[in-house]
């Protein structure tokens, strides 16, 4: 076996071992954000009465988000703003509790259910709609590795949603690229963490349970074909066929294309290697699209090859 093959195997092994490090070090019902020396129990209603609320950093149809301060540490405070969306807010909190041990989900810091408040870790770089400008500013044009790792990062998020402890979940609040990117935050290490978990309905194929995202007709090339009204005449929610998590795979191809757009021409072969993956993700037949787990395995190998190539240059 050549030295190159040995390096490749070692690099792949390190990526595979990342699965063992996906969980945070704290136990159930605890958090540890920068500035804390040890894990702390979730903040409760009494704790939240004593935090300092600062500027608004986000607002949507369901909640408003403020930068806040607890014991001198920055946190993000979310509050329900429309009681019509109470179920969505509560669902988001439930998902945070179920998935919070994973490094690819924003850390839950505390909550007060009766006041419809929840607190999460604050990430100063904001959501992923600005991710390309952030990496270009830090790395310049020589950023193919970080762009590929973003693809792998997003694939791991999908793998968590599709095969994680909360069952098989579908990212429903993702009908265009910018909306999907806004669901994630950028960490200081330029990783992506899922932040908005208000619309993650469950699929249970054994019980025949599938989903319909929202109550209105969906349009555009970004949404999967099976998410569009398939009949003549006006849209009727009761007659709309349901679908499964493979809608996320259809959209993933566009996310990956965005992440690797305008890379150095030296790495055109990367685009070529990904072409077949993108093509299968865009299969009109959902069952022919790959799983998130398979996509992760393909991207791991490509990241390893590019990293090795850069090392040898």
From TrEMBL:
GO terms for biological process: protein O-linked glycosylation. GO terms for molecular function: ATP binding; carbohydrate kinase activity; phosphotransferase activity, alcohol group as acceptor. Gene3D superfamilies: Transferase(Phosphotransferase) domain 1. Its main location: membrane. InterPro entries: Kinase-like_dom_sf (IPR011009), POMK (IPR039318). One of its GO terms (cellular component) is endoplasmic reticulum membrane. The keyword Kinase applies. It is found in: Endomembrane system. The keyword Transferase applies. Residues 1-20 form the signal peptide. Keywords: ATP-binding, Kinase, Membrane, Nucleotide-binding, Signal, Transferase, Transmembrane, Transmembrane helix. It is a single-pass membrane protein. PANTHER family: PROTEIN O-MANNOSE KINASE. This is Protein O-mannose kinase-like.
């Amino acid at each position: 076996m050549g030295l190159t093959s040995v390096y490749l195997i070692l690099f792949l092994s390190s990526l595979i071992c990342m699965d063992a490090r996906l969980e945070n070090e704290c136990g159930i019902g605890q958090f540890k954000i920068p500035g804390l020396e040890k894990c702390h129990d979730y903040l409760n209603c009494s704790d939240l009465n004593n935090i300092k609320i600062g500027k608004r950093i986000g607002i949507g149809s369901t909640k408003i988000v403020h930068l806040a301060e607890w014991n001198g540490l920055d946190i993000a405070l979310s509050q329900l703003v429309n009681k019509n969306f109470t179920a969505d807010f509560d669902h988001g909190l439930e998902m945070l509790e179920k998935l919070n041990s994973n490094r690819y989900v924003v850390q839950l810091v505390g909550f007060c259910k009766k006041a419809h408040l929840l607190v999460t870790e604050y990430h100063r770089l904001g959501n992923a709609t600005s991710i390309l400008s952030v990496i270009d500013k830090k790395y310049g044009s020589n950023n193919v590795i970080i762009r590929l790792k973003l693809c792998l990062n997003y694939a791991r998020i999908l793998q968590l949603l599709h095969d994680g402890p909360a069952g098989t979940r579908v990212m429903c609040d993702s009908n265009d690229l910018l909306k999907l990117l806004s669901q994630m935050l950028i960490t200081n290490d330029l990783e992506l963490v899922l932040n908005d978990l208000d619309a993650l309905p469950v699929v249970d194929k054994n019980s025949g349970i599938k989903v319909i995202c929202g109550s209105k007709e969906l349009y555009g090339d970004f949404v999967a074909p099976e998410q569009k009204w398939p009949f003549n005449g006006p849209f009727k929610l009761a007659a709309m066929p349901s679908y499964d998590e493979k809608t996320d795979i259809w959209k993933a191809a566009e996310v990956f294309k965005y992440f690797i757009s305008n890379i150095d021409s030296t790495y055109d072969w990367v685009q070529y290697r990904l072409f077949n993956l993108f093509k299968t993700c865009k299969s009109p037949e959902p069952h022919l699209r790959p799983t998130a787990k398979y996509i992760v395995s393909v991207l791991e190998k490509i990241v390893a090859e590019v990293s090795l190539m850069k090392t040898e240059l």
